[in-house]
Fold:
Amino acid sequence: MKIYNSVEEFSPDFKVVLTLGTFDGVHIGHQSIVRQLNKNAQKIGGESVLLTFYPHPRHVIFPDDQKLKLLTTIEERSRMLENYELDHLIIQEFTQEFSRIKSVNFVRDVLVNKLKVNKLIIGYDHHFGRNREGNFQELVNLSDLYGYEIQKIEPQRHQDVSVSSSKIRKLILEDEIKTASDYLGHLFCLKGIIVKGKQRGRSIGYPTANILIDNKWKLLPTDGSYAVWAEVDGQKYKAMMNIGFNPTFPNGKRTVEVHILDFNKDIYGKEMRVSVVQKLRNEKKFNSVGELKKTLEIDENKVRNILI
Structure:
């Protein structure tokens, strides 16, 4: 997959089958669109192209409201899309100026003149252009004028519920991790660099890797303990993760700590990727170190039974 940092960098000499959107989470609906994209590109001897935007349009249009947290960073999104055999990914910086482009001008200047679109495949509810004024019907109306084909993808459903990024975010914040994973079509992931913490876990037999999540828009699950898979240096391990403020030893900071089972290596400074499988319990304050250790032993047994 080739990656471009703006529409200006993209200069196709092939037939372009294109889709566009934020694709946060690359969930089963997004996956269906990419499969259709690839299938149509192969049919006409062209190549599949996805145009996405960074930062998220809401973070730019409403700069004073940064409450929207995302399922994936742009790096995570890129990595996932590569797994679905996409040919080209264009990451367009979304700015205030870009947000003011009228929908009809966006079609003419960006989709047609710059991206040379032959066929456009989009989700059923896609909107674009200034004030989200553009929609599927407008794209249909302009297709004859500009000579491109258009195909609409209906929503993917899971147990008769239409899937969307916003629904998945809500599920994660409601601790419905299994359903969120079903909607995503993969486990919810987060990643960061391993940094030194207080090292209290080591003293009670549960050393933890403190993960620095260096992205203010990344969604984190609710505070508590989780069964997770931890990946370091390409190797995957059973692990337990705690997110929260560590009320037994409070320091006022929310942390992400991962204890890898049956593991004893120095991994400071390395990147860890964590795949969240199931929540074990909410965070709580313990009356003693002994009570904390006993609970961690219970958590560990649960993790060993869940991750098989």
Notes: The chain has a mean pLDDT of 93. The CA atoms of residues 137 and 143 lie 10 Å apart. The radius of gyration is 22 Å. The chain has ten helices and 14 strands.
